[in-house]
Amino acid sequence: MKRFNAPLIALTVVALALSIVAVGCGGGNNSGSTNSDLSGTIKIDGSSTVAPLSEAAAEKFQAENADVRVTVGTSGTGGGFEKFCAGETDLSDASRPIKDEEIKICEKNGIKYEELQVANDGLANVVNVQNDFAKCLTTDQLKKIWDKGSKVDNWNQVDPSFPNEKMDLYGAGTDSGTFDYFTEAINGEEGQSRTDYNATEDDNVTVQGVSGTKGGLGYFGLSYVSQNEGKIKALEIDGGDGCVAPSTKTVQDGTYKPLSRPLFVYASAKALQRPEVDAFLEYYITNQTEIAGQALFVPMTEEQAAASKASIDKLVKEAGATS
Q1: What residues contact 146, with CB distance under 8 A and at least 6 apart?
Q2: Are residues 205 and 170 in contact, defined by beta-carbon separation less than 8 angstroms?
Q3: What is the distance of C-alpha 33 from the center of its chain?
Q4: Which residues contact 60 (CB under 8 A, 6 or more apart)?
Q5: Residue pLDDT, tens place only, 221-240
Q6: What is the pTM of this model?
Q7: Residue 190: closest CA among 175, 203, 205
């Protein structure tokens, strides 16, 4: 499926069809239905983890609004906020909440925005399919492996019952929200990590590395586990209450901890003054269950979706736009 294949490549999703189903709907399009009168370009950039969601939403939206062009870049959450707070993009994909220093830049540049949750995600720790000894790791063991200054390079250093198997580590690059979240959740401080591992913003590199090395260990979004079933396998994690496997259910109910998280899109008030952006976000949230399912993420609960819809309405009012 296209949306999973190139997370680091800025993806331009072009209009797919000329035959538009003109469903009876008003200009505000608050029902999430289509509006063939819409036109323009919507610029999105940010997290490579969130990108498959935005790409799926864009593809579906454009299929029903042929004159709207949506571009989805993957500069990473931090890189996306740099562009968003500079006024270069309309929407910013983020796998973590915006940081205080990023808020200040947005404020300095007069960028008003709202945070919209669009899905849930879990970070999976994955090993080679030939690894038949590690099924569950505690968060203390993960910290022992990944913390700053760690010299662990063999599985038997993690647990004496594990074999003498050299460890080959893969993980997120430092400009990724996945890196920020993983290091804070496991090592206790955002950005605190050993540096002698294969760091990449491209999760496919981690898949290739772990699947090609028996002692491989890596981490990334849960969606890539489903996408690469048979090449890698996910470990259960013991966050203090026993081993829990990452799954839709455990991510949504929060029992897979501490590595489950919400995913966001940040929308600027200026962008929401444009009807195509308003309609796109309405479509994104209204159809979030289908979009999340297509992108192999965990959909929002009804309460989460309602909160995101309320945030859109709030931002539209603040922008003085009509919906």
Answers
A1: 169, 171, 182, 183, 186, 187, 193, 194, 197
A2: yes
A3: 25
A4: 283, 287, 290, 291
A5: 887 888 899 999 999 999 99
A6: 0.68
A7: 175
